[in-house]
Amino acid sequence: MPGHVLIAPDKFKGSLTAPGVAEAVADGMRRVRADVDVQVAPVADGGDGTVSAAIASGYRRVPVRVTGPVGEPVDAEIAVDGDTAVVELASASGLAMLDPARLAPMTATSAGTGELVRAALDEGAHTIVLGVGGSACTDGGAGMLGALGARLLAADGSPLPPGGGALAELDKLDLGDLDPRLNSAEVVLASDVDNPLLGPKGAAHVYGPQKGADPAQVEQLDAALARWAHAVSSAGCGDVSGHPGAGAAGGVGFAAIAVLGARRRPGTDVVLDLVGFDRRLAGARLVVTGEGSLDEQTLHGKAPAGVASRASTAGVPVVAVAGRCLLPAQRLHDAGFAAAYALADVEPDPERSMREGAELLVGVGERIAREWL
User: 77 with 62: CB under 8 angstroms?
Assistant: First the structure.
């Protein structure tokens, strides 16, 4: 039977990166069928892993040292191909970068994300894909804009300190020194989040608690973000606080849409286009995708669902690999998956499964090759 196999998984969070998953499955399949062309194309959903997926598909890695979520220097990277750059908020302003016992809901900043955008401009990018998700901050993107030249001033003319809490003291937003290169850049906001900036479904109320905010701090942050939205509107950017996606990444989506003119697109679609998925799908006989946990969330914008949708539409069978699968067979079938292979079925000990994920996936790859090739 002609045709290649395309392996396009997302990461197994806490265990393996997407490239690591893809290579392990590919290794197993090649052991059984060395005569079949097995290709890897790691994917992501616009959050953590977006840059590594772009690099794996041929984008150039550019290391950048930036300001972390609580002000410490951190090493991050962007991916560049021609005049397109991919920026990942999680690598500069991510919640996972902080000690769970020492979160900073009021003071965490998105400044490092702005520094990544500036690095993309330095590389000559005219299209900047901004992957958001997993942020530590609820600063409305104020830190990001500050790193790009905006000035946030208190009533006495002094600059505001970082963090969403400080926005309660904001008197004026000055965009006069905003990096002029942004005027000719197209920013794509890769996000599935459709929350507005403010209110009960906004950034502070929905996502603030997971970033360490207690109920009183949630109310303070929501009020501070309202003050921030008014300042942005007064600076001539209009009121987009109610736009879907404005609440993404603690309001970074708001700043991107209002000030950078970003266009929001589903993260998985953006990444699949970045890695040339449709081109690589052409002529395939089988697609393998997956992520750490196949569950109901998978079916709502996650990368494996996007892969399954595109592949099944093209008439190519799709099987999934996962650490665990919580979806019944009918739900899998309805979503376009022909089968699912869970490590939990091979190794019931979750800790060992995560620790030895690569080795177990090699065995899963061998099984897929025997059953599907």
Answer: yes
